[in-house]
Design a protein that fits this description.
The chain is an alpha/beta fold and 269 residues long. The protein has a single domain (4-263), classed as Creatininase (Rossmann fold, 3-Layer(aba) Sandwich). Helix content is 35%, strand content 9%. It has helices at residues 15-19, 46-61, 92-106, 124-137, 152-158, 171-180, 218-221, 235-257; strands at residues 26-32, 66-69, 114-118, 144-146, 166-168, 227-228. The strands form 2 sheets. It has a 4-stranded parallel beta sheet, with helices on both faces. Helix 2 links the parallel strand 1 and strand 2 (66-69). Helix 2 (46-61) packs across helix 8 (235-257) and helix 6 crosses helix 8. The N and C termini lie far apart (42 Å). The mean pLDDT is 96. The chain binds zinc ion. The site of zinc ion (ZN) has 6 residues, from helix 2.
Length: 269
Amino acid sequence: MSSQRDRVEWQLHSWKEIDGLDRDESLLIIPTGAIEQHGPHLPVDTDIFNANAIALAIAKESRSPRTLVLPPIWWGTSPHHLGFPGTLSLRNETFFQIIRDVVSSLKPHGFYRFLIINGHGGNAGIITATVSQLSEDLGISIPAYSYWQSIRDTLVKVGESSIGGMGHACEMETSLALHLRPESVDLKALRSDIPDEKTPWSCIDFRQGGFLGIPLDLKRDSREGVIGDPMPATAAKGKTIFDAAVEVGSKVVSDLAKLSKAELITSRY
Ligand SMILES: [Zn+2]
């Protein structure tokens, strides 16, 4: 049987084990993602699978602080993918309420160190709004990031597709899938679909995002739900991308551990 320290999934612990955690030395990761169409070649759980896999690997690396991964929030806000079957989309308020209820369940037991690791671009806006509101409502400041933001240099280095090739069900996500669970990729269904950007300012690519956001509708803006180019994806690239995300995430976790409690609690609390 694995030792208690090897188990990083919150839900695998008893309440006694959880009660024994040092609140100042424990950091709880909330993985967020989506259940949404990912083209004809990837499963609909791609975003939450990746966020959870990265969070689990970071937690296993981390010794100080003790890092546990809360049950992943499977669903995200994906209205722009509802044109394809398979997508399960939450309303913004539902997403907010789920995160709020998770944190509200833990706060009375003294937990205050959290980190949201996000795997779905469509969640970015509501996550910013959520952590801002929770800082106001619960008095806890929760850091959050989307994993690709932390590894832009690596994506630029390994990417072979032209700009526009790393957006959705793309070179990055398909490479990660080929590394983490190759059986989930339907290689016969790979199709490149790099969109014509609507303006010169609105590029959708993890390596070079444009500053002008225009809400997407994948049914309108893609042929089969892909924005990017999965053709040059490889398992080796996926390993490089995954390892980079875990390495940076581990540094983030150890730096967050250096913040005092006073630095994470809203001043009025
Ligand atoms: Zn995705």
